[in-house]
């Protein structure tokens, strides 16, 4: 049997459903998902097997017009993921169609040059009438030379099998890149930090989720089989600390509980999770914070 293996970058506007698709392909939640834009911050790899093909999916941050250093580093990571991939899958939201943001991404794909295999996945088809999809498919294919078009719902799973089978055929021949049973290529400490960041993002309003970062400070394996995990939530302002704590510490308590429960399910054992909030006005300009997130600090230079 000839084996195949390669990288597939999932790109698109923030909120297009890239992380949802990655998780569905992998069959486990390795990348966090929220209803808010700019959830994913770094490239996250998930591994799936399809017959003799190994598909390494690269989830990327959404592509948008960056303003801050963090935004620029995120967008650079996304384009970097696309440049390194064997196949690029562009996700476009069915109900939003060709937005300004999609136009900008198409221009970026043109700039990447010909010869790259780019597929189109119109996502969230569960949200529209099927008649609307034909027009959108035609309009997008008139704008860019896609190798193939798929209509999917990453959330409901529609069309995902077809996409996976097609991707498997596109992978170059070669040995598998990861052990057959590996599903993610992300340190556990980072997955743990991401889970806490997801719970914070789901609970906090407006800009606050974009002004914080979570790091796993220590991870201790205990004799009784449980793990003690200590995390730091960095915020930029004193007032933010109060909001995250909540009345009588209720907010942070609820966040830690939700994160701990998910971690326990993921790890299949007991977890003791301790989250501490630190006010650090300059964290968005600190190189160490970026490497913890898996981003290149220099990419954020304006
Ligand atoms: N109705 C519907 N919602 C979806 C579908 N796929 C994803 N979503 C929702 O869209 C929202 C964003 O999904 P994500 O997977 O976090 O999107 P993303 O592209 O990774 O977003 P960023 O990381 O911010 O760039 C979540 O609320 C998902 O549940 C789908 O097929 N149908
Ligand atoms: Mg994402």
TrEMBL record:
Ranges where the Era-type G domain occurs: 4-173
- Which parts of this chain are annotated as the region G1? 12-19
Q: What's the main place this protein lives?
A: cytoplasm
Q: Which cell locations does it reside in? A: Cytoplasm; Cell membrane
- Indicate how the chain sits in the lipid bilayer: Peripheral membrane protein
Locate the region G5.
Answer: 152-154
Could you list this entry's UniProt keywords, alphabetically sorted: Cell membrane, Cytoplasm, GTP-binding, Membrane, Nucleotide-binding, Ribosome biogenesis, RNA-binding, rRNA-binding
- Where are the residues of the annotated region G2? 38-42
Return the annotated region ranges for G3.
59-62
Q: Which residues bind GTP?
A: 12-19, 59-63, 123-126
Say if the entry is tagged with keyword Cell membrane.
yes
Provide a GO biological process annotation: ribosomal small subunit assembly
Matches recorded under InterPro entries:
G_ERA_dom, GTP-bd, GTPase_Era-like, KH_dom-like_a/b, KH_dom_type_2, KH_sf_prok-type, P-loop_NTPase, Small_GTP-bd
State if GTP-binding is listed as a keyword: yes
Annotated region G4: the residues are 123-126
Q: What is the stated purpose of this protein? A: An essential GTPase that binds both GDP and GTP, with rapid nucleotide exchange. Plays a role in 16S rRNA processing and 30S ribosomal subunit biogenesis and possibly also in cell cycle regulation and energy metabolism.
The UniProt family comment states:
Belongs to the TRAFAC class TrmE-Era-EngA-EngB-Septin-like GTPase superfamily. Era GTPase family.
Alphabetized NCBIfam families for the sequence? era, PRK00089.1, small_GTP
Record-given protein name: GTPase Era
Q: Which organism is it from?
A: Roseovarius halotolerans
State which gene encodes it: era
């Amino acid at each position: 049997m000839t084996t195949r293996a390669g990288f597939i970058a999932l790109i698109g506007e923030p909120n297009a459903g890239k992380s949802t698709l990655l998780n569905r392909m992998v069959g486990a939640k390795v990348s966090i998902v929220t209803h808010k834009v700019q959830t994913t911050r770094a490239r996250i790899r998930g591994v799936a097997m399809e017959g003799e093909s190994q598909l390494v999916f690269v989830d990327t941050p959404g592509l948008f017009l960056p303003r801050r250093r963090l935004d620029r580093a995120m967008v650079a990571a996304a384009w970097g993921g696309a440049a390194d991939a064997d196949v690029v899958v562009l996700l476009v939201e069915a109900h939003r169609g060709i937005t300004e943001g999609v136009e900008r991404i198409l221009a970026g794909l043109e700039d990447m040059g010909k010869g790259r295999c780019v597929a189109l996945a119109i996502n969230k088809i569960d949200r529209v009438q099927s008649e609307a999809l034909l027009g959108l498919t035609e309009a997008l294919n008139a704008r860019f030379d896609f190798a193939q078009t798929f209509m999917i719902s990453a959330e409901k799973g529609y069309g995902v099998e077809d996409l996976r089978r097609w991707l498997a055929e596109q992978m170059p021949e070669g040995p598998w890149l990861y052990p057959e049973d590996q599903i993610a290529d992300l340190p556990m400490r980072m997955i743990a930090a991401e889970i806490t960041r997801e719970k914070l993002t789901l609970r906090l309003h407006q800009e606050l989720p974009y002004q914080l970062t979570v790091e796993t400070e220590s991870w201790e394996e205990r004799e009784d089989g449980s793990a003690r995990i200590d995390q730091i939530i960095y915020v930029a302002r004193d007032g933010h600390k109060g909001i995250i704590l909540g009345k009588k510490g209720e907010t942070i308590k609820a966040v830690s509980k939700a994160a701990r429960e998910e971690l326990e399910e993921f790890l299949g054992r007991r977890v003791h999770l301790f989250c501490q909030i630190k006010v650090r006005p300059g964290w968005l300009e600190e190189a160490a914070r970026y490497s913890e997130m898996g981003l290149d600090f220099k990419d954020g230079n304006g």
